[in-house]
Amino acid sequence: MIPKSRERGVENIMGKYINKIKKKYEETKDYSLLVYLILRFLVILCMILQIVRGDWNNAFLCLLSLLLFTIPTFIEDTLKITLPTVLETIIYLFIFSTEILGEINNFYGTIPYWDTILHTLNGFLAAGIGFSLVDLLNKNSKRINLSPIFVAIVAFCFSMTIGVLWEFFEYGVDSLFYKDMQKDRIVTSISSVTLNENHENKPVTIKDIKSTQIITPKGTTTIEGGYLDIGINDTMKDLLVNFIGAVCFSAIGYLHIKNRDKYKFASNFIPTKSK
Length: 275
Known about the structure:
Elements: H1 4-28, H2 31-53, H3 56-68, H4 71-79, E1 81-82, H5 85-104, H6 107-110, H7 114-140, H8 148-177, E2 185-187, E3 190-192, E4 204-206, E5 211-216, E6 219-224, E7 227-229, H9 232-258, E8 272-273
Antiparallel strand pairs: 1-8, 2-7, 3-4, 5-6
């Protein structure tokens, strides 16, 4: 039995939390908050369903999503930075699309280019965040006056760094926990110096591979249709589309600095200093 005093304490905390959310929405009419509440409700439902099914791995992903949803608020309160409504909404949708739709509902496997779209968007958003870090410094310091092209390059480099670190994370998870974050792909040709019988540094190319066999003490597994690439193609594709997203935003950011009134729409993706 839970003491009534403790029950009242939990109810009071929940009541204050709900009232705070209602007050914030009434004051700002911020639709990102409405998106947050809807997605949070869906994630909680999904988590309950996974617990009922006994799928604790997916239940953990739901819990992780709920924690990730708190990042925008944490950034705003801790760093005194205001996230534009459009950016904040996209962040919530991005988290939901990767964890709930992508991982739990297997959109990565059932919907073509789902992973590609998200990595491109990640490159775009990360460039926006990197851009804002330098732009805030540029606008709020009397001693620093960086050129627009420099700010754009920093934004691009920041985005690519985030993309590379994420690929490191995927590789680490796959290597340590035998997952498949770096998605496998069937290829029909390979080129490798390992296959050179004379041990020379000259690659041997094999084309039109029909099938391959993996032999282990437990038996033989046949891969039909070609050779199994275990991640390099997926990693390079992810970095390429991250590059495209980063270039797109860096170009937009450059134009935004040159003419903030004409390219005002870029401000929807650039955090600003709280007043």
